[in-house]
Amino acid sequence: MGINTIGRRKLEYCGKIFYWNVRQDAEDLARIGITIVSEDKKLIVSYHVAQADNDKIPHIVVKGMEFVGLENYPRKGWARIQTPIWDDRIVTPSLVRAIIEWCLLPKDQLSFVDWEGNLFEGERS
Question: Residue 17's Cα: distance from chain center in Å?
Fold first, then answer.
């Protein structure tokens, strides 16, 4: 089944098509979030905007099965991974491209966080 593209922007990266949108999440303290989905639905991630302004660790929520670094990590459900600090106050296609690029590039180490962005000290790969 295809992706509903209504209200989503399209971005091509390394020959793959991704769709993204920005919306306020009423179920998550009305925070503004970016959702990115690959055309084949293997990469699905969500990222809250303006995390760089917070005192918590910025993180991304990995919902799909494609994310470099999690291939050998047995998981059920979503994973929350610490991200670099991006200039994320304003959502632009270049921010979305940076997030996609980071998701698809090899990483030396992943740091897992809880739903509030607190680092899990004992769980790193």
Answer: 16
pLDDT at 35 over 90: yes
Please say if the pLDDT value at position 104 is more than 90. yes
Kind and range of the H or E element at 122?
A: strand 119-124
The whole-model pTM stands at 0.87
Phi and psi at residue 93, to the nearest 5°? -60, -30
Nearest to 59 by CA among 120, 122, 115: 115
How many other β-carbons are positioned within 10 Å of the β-carbon of residue 21?
Answer: 16
Q: For 52, which DSSP code?
A: G
DSSP-assigned letter for residue 15: T
